[in-house]
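Final paragraph of the annual report: two paired records, presented back to back.
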Amino acid sequence: MENKPKFAFVGNSHMAFWALNVYFPQWESFNYGAPGGGLSYVESFDKDTSDCQVVIQFSTNDIYQLNEENVDDYVERYVKAVLAIPSLKTFLFCIFPRNDYDDYSTTVNRFIRILNQKIQRKLAGTNIVYLDVFNRLLSDGRLNPEMTIDDLHLNGRGYSILSDTLKQAVLRSNESSL
């Protein structure tokens, strides 16, 4: 019997609620998602995932604590925390869009887009595979309600986008390592 590749999923509720056995039956998946988790959760993550490929996504829970004055320090801590998680290969999803408290505001997603750009620039030169699905989850500048169960957490359609993106990235990564 062939060993299944091991994948560890780390992050917030988007990771915790992902039906990994449904989307990735070909993998041995470990779900370390923590609803409400943010940077402090990832900074304190202490599981040995050195024999796994690691998939990370977090930060939507931290957004309302950030502003122009502290965002660069946050990006430094964010990238340091991601790089500190031991892995065979790390796949990092962008920070997902969310819907602001104001019913039709797009302000929070404009900020998240800038934050994602800063993170992506900071990751240049690392071995992290950055997975940008931000625009695919948007509709009219907001998290697409057709991708969510409650205007925040993803539904099957949203998770299909994540799953397809991750599978393609893993395939490309495996091909490039041959």
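The closing record of the year follows.
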Amino acid sequence: MFDSFHRGTSERLDRPRYHADLGRLYTSGIGFLNKLERGQHFQERGFPSWEAFADGDWERALSLADERREDYAQELRRAARLGVRHRRLRVVEFPITPYVQWELFVLRARVEVGDEIRILDADDISNIEQTHPVPEAVILGDVVLYEVIYDEDGNAAGAEKYTDRSLIRETNAGFDALYERGERFHDFFDREIAPLAPPRVSGTPTGLRGAR
């Protein structure tokens, strides 16, 4: 399903080039954006809610996450004007990490203004993760596929860019299949996240991601 990534020809983009390339293509009539998220530990330096979370101020972290609702609503209004449908699939491992616990509160704010997000238990894809986890991927229509990559310290380092149409079609089909298996966000959140006590943050989580 996702193994074909590594059979295709790609172009390595550093973080600035990746963000610039994605921004340019996003406005080119792509039709939809599919995003697959797999990592369980990241840093979001510069994102106030994550900074509060990393400092152990859980209540402030949640308050700051809620304050982003209008920003997310504006993103979706812009997407609607451009005719771009957003879908995100978040893979979650158990026990839930402090980072993911925090992130799902941020994603809840997105869902409540109309973002389409589903949750998939990592155990449900163990059959396709026998050799390695599914990649962190962003797909813009049938135009481009980015595999988000990280340096040896776990920091976001840019992306591998793929433009082969058959590879993109195959990956979109794989995403569609997993998305259909995903659980509705609020069902998962209300059952697994809402009852949890505030997480204990010991040290800074690894993996720099960039503001959400």
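Residues 204-208 have pLDDT under 50 and may be disordered. This concludes the annual technical report; the extension proposal builds directly on these records.
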